[in-house]
Amino acid sequence: MKFSVKLRLTSFLIVLISINETLSSSYSILHMIQNIKKQQASSVLGRSTLMFVSWPSPSPTVQSQYQRPVGIIRETHEVTVVIVPLPAQGHLNQLLHLSRLISSYDIPVHYVGTASHIRQAKVRVHGWDPLAISNIHFHEFSIPSYETPPPNPNAPTKFPTQLIPVFNTSIKLREPVYALLQQLSGTSRRLVVIYDSLMAYVIQDVGLIPNAESYCSPGTSAFTIYSCFPQEMTDFAKLQQDVKPISSGYLFNTCRAIEGPYLDLHVKSKITDSDKQWAIGPFNPVEVNGQKNSETRHCCLDWLDKQAPNSVIFISFGSTTSVSDEEAKEIATGLDKSGQKFIWVLRDADKGDVFQGEDRRAQLPKGFEERVEGRGIVVRDWAPQLEILGHSSTGGFMSHCGWNSCIESISMGVPVAAWPMHSDQPRNAILLEKVLKIGLKVRDWSKLNELVTSITVENAVRRLMDSAEGEEMRQRARELSKAVKGSVMEGGLSRLEMDSFIAHIRR
Ligand SMILES: *[C@@H]1O[C@H](CO)[C@@H](O)[C@H](O)[C@H]1NC(C)=O
After folding, report:
1. Three-state SS sequence of 224-247
2. CA 60 – ligand 1 centroid, Å
3. Which atom number of ligand 1 is nearest to the Cα of residue 161?
4. Is there a contact between 395 and 313 (Cβ–Cβ < 8 Å)?
5. How far is the CA of 40 from the centre of ligand 1 (A)?
6. What residues have CB less than 8 Å from 161, skipping those under 6 apart?
7. Strand residue runs (E) in 302-447
8. Whose CA is nearest to atom 3 of ligand 1?
9. Where are the alpha helices (DSSP H) in 84-173?
10. Closest by Cα among 381, 385, 384, 411 to 400
11. Which segments constitute the Glycosyltransferase N-terminal domain (predicted)?
12. Domains of the chain, earliest start first
C-alpha cells in the first residue's frame, strides 16, 4: 500500500497530489480502522466505568525548586528528561503538556527555549498550571536577535512566513542546549532528550554524551507525519533532515483509538530510523474543570454556562494564521445569517516574539457586534480553547485543523468544520472528515485561491449545528472522545504505552 508519508518536504503542488493518495489509501483501510476502533472502544469503555481518573496528579508545589539556576543541579537521578520544542505556539504547547505527563511519573523534566518562548508557553498553557508543577525546570537561553515581522493577512498562502527568522535563529540553541545536556548527564544515570522533529539540528550532539539518548516527537498525527511545507520552509526543514540524529524512538501525540491503523502503517512502512514508537496522546488534559468561581476564568466561559447544551460553535484558526479583512467580513456575514450562537476568536497570528510590537485588529462589518449581541462573542485575545471545547454548551468547532486543535476537539467530543490553512492541516482535515467522520469541509483545498464566501460559511455552520448530519457527527465525536478518555485512564491503551515508555527510559 502506498502511503503518502513517503512524500517529505515538498511543495504545495505536491500537497494536492499527496492528498489524493492519502484519500485513496484512507478509503481502502477504512474498514480496518472501523473494526479496530470498535474493538478498542468496547474494551476500553468496558474498563473505564469504575476507574475514572485522569493522569496521575502532579507532586505538590515546591516554589523554590521551580526556577532553580542551572549551576546548582546536584542530585543524582535515575533518569532526567530534557524537552526541546520548536519556538512556535502549537509546538511549545504540545511539549509542555507532555512535560506535565512525564513529570507526573516523578521524573525531573527540563524544558528549554528562549526567555520569550518559555514565557509564551507558560502564560498560554490551558487546562492546568505549569507553575504548580515543581518537577518542570524551565531553562531560558539567549539567542541572537531576530526579525519579528508582522504576519501578512493578505499573503498568497497562509503559511506563517513571519516565523521563519525565529526558526532560522533557533538553531543557535545548539550550543547552550549541549552545555545543559553535558551538565545534566553527570547528575543522572540516563539522560533522555525529547525533541520536536524540527529541532533535530539543535540536538545533533546528543550522540557525544554516553548516557544520553533522544526521542523524536513529530508533533503531528500519524496520518500526516511528514507534513508538506511550502518553499519558504524547505531550507530550515532540510537542515533538520541533514543532521539525522540517531533517534531511539518516536513519541506520538495521538492514540490507537484515533488512528491505530496509521500507527501500524508507520512502523510497517519503515520510514524512520527506529521501529520503536509510543502513541501516548492526547498530551493535553482530557478533563478540564471549568473552575467556576475562579477570578481568572475567561468571561466567555461564564457566557457558555448560560447557553443550551451543544448550541454554540467555537471558531478559531490557531496561532499561525491571520484572516484578511475580506475573509473576516465573509465569516462575520456567514455567522450572522446562520442564526447560530458562536464564540469567534479573531486575533492576529503570532509573530516570532509574541511580546513585541502591536497586533493588527481585523475589521468587522459595521454594526456586526451590536447585531449579534447576546448570540455571539468575538474574542480578540487568547482564549482558553480546551475549556471552551470541554464545555457542554459547545457543539461544534470551526478550525484550521492544526493537530493540537484536532486532538483537543477529539478529546472533548466536538465535531469540526474544517478550514485548513497550511502544512499538515489539509491532511488532518481529511482524517476528520473522511476517516473519523466527525468533520465537514468549509474550505475546499482544491480551490485554495478562492475566497470562502459568507454563503459557504453559513451553510457549514448550519450543517454542523442544526442538521441531522451534524448531530450524527456529534454523536460519533462523543463516542470517539469516550474511547480517547478511556485510553488515558489507568489500564487504557495510551496509558499503557506511556507506562511502557517510562519503563523503557528507566530500564
Ligand atoms: C533562513 O535560513 C536560510 C538558510 O538556512 C536562508 O536561505 C533564508 O533566507 C533564511 N530566511 C530568513 C527569512 O531568515
Report:
1. CCCCCCCHHHHHHHHHHHHHCCCE
2. 44
3. 13
4. yes
5. 46
6. 152, 155, 232
7. 312-316, 341-345, 376-379, 394-399, 416-418, 439-441
8. 235
9. 89-103, 115-123, 164-170
10. 385
11. 78-225
12. 26-286+492-505 (3.40.50.2000), 299-486 (3.40.50.2000)
SS3 205: helix
235 Cβ below 6 A of ligand 1: yes
The residues, any chain, with a CB within 8 Å of residue 142's CB and separated by 6 or more, are: 114, 115, 176
For 272, which DSSP code?
S
Q: Which residue in 496, 320, 281 sits closest to 406, CA to CA?
A: 281
d(CA 492, CA 95): 21
Kindly give the confidence (pLDDT) of every residue in the chain, 507 residues in length, as a single tens digit, with 9 standing for 90 and above. 333 333 332 222 223 333 333 433 433 333 333 333 333 333 322 222 222 222 333 333 333 333 344 444 556 789 999 999 999 999 999 999 999 999 999 999 999 999 999 999 999 998 888 888 889 999 999 999 999 999 999 998 899 999 999 999 999 999 999 999 999 999 999 999 999 999 999 999 999 999 999 999 998 998 887 556 677 788 888 888 888 777 899 999 999 999 999 998 888 876 666 778 999 999 999 998 766 667 778 999 999 999 999 999 999 999 999 999 999 999 999 999 999 999 999 999 999 999 999 999 999 999 999 999 999 999 999 999 999 999 999 999 999 999 999 999 999 999 999 999 998 999 999 999 999 999 999 988 888 889 999 999 999 999 999 999 999 999 999 999 999 999 999 999 999 999 999 999 999
Using only the alpha carbons of the chain, give its radius of gyration: 22
Grid cell listed for 83: 524537552
Of 97, 137, 196, 298, which is the active-site residue? 196
Residue type, 91: H
- Residue 313 pairs in a beta bridge with 342, 396
Neighbours of 444 (CB within 10 A): 13
| 103 phi and psi angles, rounded to 5 deg | -60, -30
> Quick check: is 298 catalytic?
no
| CA distances from residue 502 to 104, 105, 107, 277 in whole angstroms, order as listed | 11, 8, 9, 12
How far apart (Å, rounded) are the C-alpha atoms in residues 272 and 26? 21
Could you tell me the three cell numbers for 415?
465535531
Ligand 1 centroid to 168 CA: how many Å? Answer: 6
